[in-house]
Amino acid sequence: MNNPNTPSPAVSVIIPVYNLENYLDACLASVERQTFPSFEALVVDDGSTDRTSEVLKRHADRDPRIVAIRKSNEGVAKARETALEHARGRYICFLDGDDLWEPDMLERLVAAIEEPGKSYDIVCCNYKRISKSYEAPVREKRTADMEGLEYLEASLRHAISVTLWGRIYRRELFDGEIRHYPLRLGQDTMINIQIGCKRPRVRFIDYVGYGYVQRAGSSNHRNFDFAYCQTFSRTVDEVLTRHEQALEGRKEYLHLLNSLRWYLVYVTKSSSPWVGDSEYARTLREKARRYAKELRPLFSPVRRTILRLDASRALRPIVVILATLLRWQNSLQRRLSR
Predict the structure, then answer these.
(1) Which of 63, 164, 190, 315 sits in a 20 to 30 Å window from 81, CA-based?
(2) Is residue 66 a contact partner of residue 14, using CB atoms and an 8 Å limit?
(3) What ranges do the domains of the chain cover?
(4) pTM of the predicted protein model
(5) Of 149, 19, 12, nearest to 75 (Cα)?
(6) How far apart are CA 336 and CA 331, in angstroms?
(7) pLDDT tens per residue, range 148-187
(8) Helices (H), the chain
(9) Does domain 11-213 fall into CATH 3.90.550.10?
């Protein structure tokens, strides 16, 4: 551990790792190369069974800014919670142990959040997907500043990136009742939703500083089913209920944004069984009709059509066709961005 008598660093970098012996060396090397020197990297080894701990020890022995924390395996949510308990910086950054930073990542983020005359709580940058065959930048569609409930709304409907990585946060945002939910998908989203309820002022900078390494075995929507759709909806409802006073009477609408987003993810998977006659789906469509005016500019005509057609099992083939077209469109856009 760091000596508590040493000066506090400006940034605490939180890096949860589990069985990443083939990736952690490059990850930590990218941290050590940072042009901004005032940081601590809290690397939480979540009970790895491979040689991850050896890689971590090697880096911690040669760079005192790398702090090794080993614990029993409890998942990434608990690992991040553990790191936050030890964090001494006035800012917090997150980095996954299989990803990479550009050398000036921290320098650019700290400069942006500390720009004279400004008062930001979060600064977000762009990232790039890295595979064996290509690197492709991914830029945020939103570039204007956010304040009030804008960050919460955008996070609920995934209008912006919902990852914890690729941004810098003021430490105070994690004070109080921030819960780390051990969900198999959407853990980052849940943290950002809770932070969004605190009405942060957010800045976006046009800078590609984070490298998201594509690897086999990382989590994605393949583990997403209807039961999980409902579980996530209940969890979001719990969070919004806890923060209802800050939501300006918009709790039902904000919850609907997130429920619609996740349900449409489920429906547009061709392999998903039809559940359009379930009470959950019927309630979702009824609320969507009540908020039709507000939802119209937020969800594309194709997605709104899919939601309506999903009410009938007989129309499921049409839904599959429309969903396939959406996937082709998204795939083409990603390829054109390379």
Answers:
(1) 63
(2) no
(3) 11-213, 224-336
(4) 0.92
(5) 19
(6) 9
(7) 999 999 999 999 999 999 999 999 999 887 888 888 889 9
(8) 24-32, 52-62, 76-86, 105-113, 150-156, 187-196, 226-242, 251-267, 279-290, 292-295, 301-309, 316-336
(9) yes
